Amino acid sequence: MDYLALGQTTNADLGTGEAASGIARFYGSWQATERGSLTFKIENRHSYTDVAPQFLGLDGGALSITGTAFNDNGLLLTNLFWTQRAENGSWTLQVGQIDVTDFVDIYGLVSPYSGFQNLSFNTNPTINTPNQGIGIAGGVKLSDNLYAVASVSDANADPSDPNFDVFSDGNLFKSLELGYTSGFDRIYFDNIHLTLWHADAADDGSRPEDYGAAFSAAWFVDNKWMPFFRAGASKGTAALYDRSISAGIGYYGHNTDLAGLGLNWAEARGKDGDQFTLEAFYRFSISPGLQITPSIQFISNPLLNPDQDSITLFGLRTRIVF
């Protein structure tokens, strides 16, 4: 079990100016057979303020998700899937309630619970990833260094009300990733990949069809430094950005401390101008079960508030592991 809390404040001319929320998580896995296991995760996401950190940037006029995952969605079933692996490790298959952001376009600093808080540096903001829901995902080793990962999942998923009647509806999210790694024991750290994705339109008209591509390159140098470059483009209007480029670096210090610095450029369909986002954070590991992460985000030319040149946002995140 763990508990995370995030508080943020901003100098935006619009909106409330502050937000805070928490996430309680209960998770684990059961090694049922030699090559098969069951994974589960239940979350309760709750806000302490009228506006949750996930939406504080939008509330202040920035087209930006400034506190990824820290919302007020309540009780959620985010994972309940079976994993089957080949005897020689050549392939892996997952079936059940999956979170596509666990494997679509990931890199070493992707987690909003331990790394960057802005979506620009988490899962690519040009990808219209669905919420956690029923799906199938698989990965296969193509060689000693090359791999492929593909998935099909519910584009209309709602983890607060899991729906098992998915594939008859026909509203699906599909992804295919081709990548290179220095070794499969370091696939999370040394990784260069191209991701292609497609999301069907919702039958009720609430979401248009969308598709696009994303590229990511990150490498763990001397097991301390992780420079990264990430870019993406989407064709539809459902994803947050039409085009996005991010670059930055992470530094893993003493006692599992982590520092991160990232810069993002983005443009959105139907919005004039370019928006730039800078985020810097330092994660202090006070003890094995306690982390504290102060951060700052600077958003230049907020696309939803043209009367303000820039917005500065300060954050403090804590994580307690039980």
What tags apply to this protein structure?
16-stranded antiparallel beta barrel, 16 strands, globular, 1 helix, mainly beta, 322 residues
Folded structure, characterized:
- It contains 1 helix and 16 strands.
- By secondary structure, it is mainly β.
- The protein has a 16-stranded antiparallel β-barrel.
- It is globular, with a radius of gyration of 19 Å.
- The N and C termini lie close together (5 Å).
- 41% of the residues are buried.
Distance between the termini: 5 Å
Work out the radius of gyration: 19 Å
Helix-strand category: mainly beta
Element-level helix/strand string: EEEHEEEEEEEEEEEEE
Task: Extract low-pLDDT stretches.
Answer: none
How are strands sequenced across the largest beta sheet? 1-2-3-4-5-6-7-8-9-10-11-12-13-14-15-16
Average pLDDT score: 95
Task: Give a summary of the structure in a few sentences.
By secondary structure, this protein is mainly β. The protein is globular and about 60 Å long.
Write the layout of secondary structure elements.
Layout: E1 2-10, E2 18-30, E3 36-47, H1 56-59, E4 74-85, E5 91-98, E6 133-141, E7 146-154, E8 172-181, E9 191-199, E10 210-218, E11 225-234, E12 243-252, E13 258-267, E14 275-287, E15 290-300, E16 310-321
Antiparallel strand pairs: 1-2, 1-16, 2-3, 3-4, 4-5, 5-6, 6-7, 7-8, 8-9, 9-10, 10-11, 11-12, 12-13, 13-14, 14-15, 15-16
